[in-house]
Amino acid sequence: MEAFSVRNSSCKVNDSRNESSETEYEETFFPWPLTVILSFMCLLISAVNGLVIILIHKKKTLRTPTNMFLASLATSDLLSGLVGIPLALICLTSFTRYFLIVCVLSTIFIRFTAISSVCNVLLIACDHYIFIIHQMRYHSLVSNRRGIAAIVAIWLIAFAASTIQMSWHSFDEETLTTIDEETESIDIKYSLACIAFFFAFPLILMCYIYGNIFYISFKRHQTDRKLNKDLRQRFRPQRHEWRGRSVLLITLIIFAGCWSPYFLTVLDEHTESIDFQLPLWVQRLLVFLNFVPAMLNPILCTLAKKDFRKAFKEVILRRESSYLSDANVNFHAASQRIAKKRG
């Protein structure tokens, strides 16, 4: 449990384990099959998020403010896979002389990517809300300059919030293993602030945003039923609209289900005692839950969009869009007819 606590938020470790107990801990807490699975998640996260960034880089048509926010989220998730998971694996499975340093780095970096991902998801939700509520003024409200400013602000906030703990900690072995009451009290307040500002507040705001979006969709559906007499025309676009809303709902569920354990276990090391300790299977599950959003975010938020699917076919699969293909066929047919007439 100590290594898991360090990896999450505490920057503390108990040095009372002897060599035999360390070996037993390494074998029982995170055995090699789970290491293989987490390594596979690392590759998958890197692949899907790297694909999103490549598509936006290759296709100028994708460089919109909304897709800039998605690229920022993909960058955060990519860092989580490329750097966060390897650091976590080393912290969970290694007991070398650099164990404490790696666990501290893992703690800070995973917190950094977690906060940046949460803020990016919230930014995407706000962008979607503005598009729905203020559709006519969207392009004046959400410009490229404002979008870049918002992204820069998110990364600065994430960096400051994740590294500020270093200001009252001295990261040497003696300090990490024995923390005084004053430092412990500051850590608890810091953990509560992280939970409030980077989980509770974003979750409440996202529930409000998506609740309003679903309410507006329902009201529009009622209006369509009154104005449109053709049932087929009425329901086809509505089904498409609700498919998009269902993606938002799934995103919200993933946000709450995967990030709540992470931010709640931030306080675990401050309250853990001999009488209460999380079961081993729960600790293992929490390790994987930390990285599930990084794997699903690009699939739900990005690759499910029509413009990204089209760009994927053109850039990766080398398929032209149907419009361009039809245009080329018509052009070649016309060229052949002209050549025959001249002949």
What does the model show?
- This protein is an all-alpha fold and about 350 residues long.
- The N terminus is likely disordered.
- About 80% of the residues lie in helices and about 0% in strands.
- It is globular and about 70 Å long.
- The chain is built from 15 helices and no strands.
- Helix 5 packs parallel to helix 9.
**What is the rounded distance between the termini?**
84 Å
Structural class: mainly alpha
Biggest β-sheet description: none
Count of helix runs: 15
Mean pLDDT: 77
Pfam family, one: 7tm_1
Protein name: G-protein coupled receptors family 1 profile domain-containing protein
Subcellular location: Cell membrane
Keywords: Cell membrane, G-protein coupled receptor, Membrane, Receptor, Transducer, Transmembrane, Transmembrane helix
Give the gist of this structure.
The protein contains 15 helices and no strands. The protein is mainly alpha-helical and 343 residues long. The relative contact order is 0.13.
Give the helices and strands, then pairings:
Layout: H1 2-10, H2 19-29, H3 32-58, H4 65-93, H5 99-133, H6 138-141, H7 144-163, H8 173-177, H9 181-227, H10 231-264, H11 268-271, H12 280-289, H13 292-302, H14 306-315, H15 322-342
Helix pairs in contact: 1-5, 3-4, 3-13, 3-14, 4-5, 4-7, 4-13, 5-7, 5-9, 9-10, 10-13
